[in-house]
Write a structure and sequence with these properties.
The protein is of the alpha/beta class and 123 residues long. It has one domain: 2,3-Dihydroxybiphenyl 1,2-Dioxygenase, domain 1 (Roll).
């Protein structure tokens, strides 16, 4: 298997209201690099995902993304100050120290997708 090389891995994130979700993720801090045929490509640094104009409630409500960041507090402050909760009717949790040695908080997007934004803690 040593000769099998990988280049990238991207999730297809569902969107109930595609236009609303595109605005949400731009306000979140992602750059929309393309938008064609019901698929929008988003990135921030080396983190990428594809937003799809597809929605199935059970799928969206069981879909989770994990974004590992250097420092969780500035991300939490950015999302709070950007007014995402009020603007999009979503929830942003408090930062919690987890037993798996991470600080994290959660954000639920307008389609019900759960994002866990986390920072690794030193052992």
């Amino acid at each position: 298997m040593h000769n099998l090389k990988t280049v990238d891995l991207k999730a297809f994130v569902p969107a109930k209201d595609f236009e609303l979700s595109k605005r949400f993720y731009q306000d979140f801090g992602f750059t929309m690099a393309s938008d064609e045929d019901g698929i929008a490509f988003f990135h921030h640094g080396n983190c990428r995902f594809l937003l799809q104009d597809f929605y199935q409630e059970q799928h969206a409500n069981n879909f989770m993304m994990h974004l590992l960041v250097k420092e969780v507090t500035p991300w939490h402050r950015h999302l709070k100050e950007a007014g995402l909760a009020e603007k999009y009717g979503i929830e942003i949790s408090d930062i919690v120290r987890q037993p798996w040695m991470m600080l994290d908080f959660t954000v639920t997007d307008p389609s019900g997708v759960l994002w866990r934004i986390a920072e690794n803690l030193e052992l």
